[in-house]
From TrEMBL:
Signal peptide: none
InterPro entries linked to this entry: Aminoglycoside_PTrfase, Kinase-like_dom_sf
Any one Pfam family match given in the protein's UniProt record, by short name: APH
The organism's place on the tree of life at top rank: Bacteria
Stretches assigned to the Aminoglycoside phosphotransferase domain: 19-105
SUPFAM superfamilies referenced in this protein's UniProt entry, alphabetically: Protein kinase-like (PK-like)
Entry protein name: Aminoglycoside phosphotransferase domain-containing protein
Amino acid sequence: MPLGKLERHLDGARAYFAPGDEAFIRAIAERASGLPALAVGATHGDFQRRNLRWEETAGTLCVIDFERSEDGPAVRDFVRLSDAWHGRPDLYEAVADGYGRPLTPAEEEHLAVLSVLDAVSGIQYGMAHGDLELAERGRRTLARLRSTSPP
């Protein structure tokens, strides 16, 4: 788990948190050390809708923007998509169908931790660089996780 940068990101994002966010973030991050290891493979690292292009004439989905690619657990690539399927079981089922199976409980736990870390990073980076859309996505993700994931 990429916990090494957590304190630096917290320092840059703390002023933009809702009450209780930091305690929740720390509680979720502490769970990371007790999670079972997942299989590692190639991941995109920034797999989200804006990096997907549908080529209508060819009937092909193209993926762009690979600068964050690295080896990691497959759920790493679901972090930025998971907001889209929240409250939409039909979309989650479509993702699971494309993935070949639903996520395991261990993968769900890893996804929660990775999503929290990504949210904090997005808030910190977004506010520091004037990318308010990125910062807002991070705040929405934290709010969603706080409502669905016990610390």
